[in-house]
Amino acid sequence: MLLRPLAAKPDEQADVIRIPQHDAGSELFDYYHGLLIMALEITEDAYGKTIVEVEDIPTQQKRQQMGLKSATTDVIWGINTEVQEEEFIAVPFPLSADLFSYRMLVVNAEDTRFREPLSKQKLKAMKAVQGHDWRDFDVLKDNGFKISGADYHMTYRLLETGFVDYFPRSILEVCEELDSHPKAVIYPHVALYYPNVIRFYTNKQRATLAKRLEQGLNKAYADGVVLHRLMAQPFFRDFAALIYQKRIIKLKSDVSAQTNALLSHPLIDEVNDVISALPEEWYQPENSGRCDWRESDVPPPTEDSSQPSN
Questions:
Q1: pTM for the whole thing?
Q2: 3-class SS at 220?
Q3: Contacts of 105 (CB under 8 A, 6+ apart)
Q4: Tens-place pLDDT, residues 74-127
Q5: SUPFAM superfamilies under this entry (predicted)?
Q6: Which domains does the chain have, with CATH numbers?
């Protein structure tokens, strides 16, 4: 498999860090990859130089985990699962706070049933679709939702052709995905919630790398860099706009002790403070269900956004 370097200059002593390819050029990939590079650069004096190499061919979640388990990959990132916590070393830092806990319902733009608020029971009676090997599939099923599993590349096709009624998508991914699916819109009345944090994971043989990443991320957080980077992302604006005045349906799910600890990380409170203090123009009425605010020129918040105005 061909790999390409994306980080430090080649050096005979450099440690090669191999990571899987996700969706090429996606906003989330760029953000998490950027945090990885930053954590490695911050700790370079203590641990040495690195070269980060990214697989040329995108791989799905299961294959990424297989690569990490077989040590053909060194770092992956993903949501919290007890299986991953048992098989790998989970770096204890919530890379995007707890924003990945929220799911918006993507529906067919021509489905008039979703133009009015629907009860939780009505939503449960309809058919949702999820990736068949995603944690969301099990969580929705355990909470009594009718759910069909599919490969990701089929999910939107099933929605657009009417085989399913809605597709719960991460609030951080949905707006970017809609660019490729003009027949889909976001149901405006409800968001689903179950606790989720994105973390870096390493093979158990790379404990030193895991500790290095933890130290680098904690230093970047203490310096305010992580919060600044997160606020500057397009998907942060999406979250603030989409969550505004939404009815939140909380789903039951098993939460490990590791995840519970991360859910009290101060980054989460800081993000909530920023969002609650954002100016009114961030909360534009959304009539099209197509994330129209992405076309506006409202600037991202600054580090002072969490401070109340006089």
A1: 0.90
A2: helix
A3: 114, 123, 128, 166, 167, 168, 169, 186, 187, 190, 191, 192
A4: 999 999 888 788 999 999 999 999 999 999 999 999 999 999 999 999 999 999
A5: Periplasmic binding protein-like II
A6: 3-99+196-247+255-274 (3.40.190.10), 100-195 (3.40.190.10)
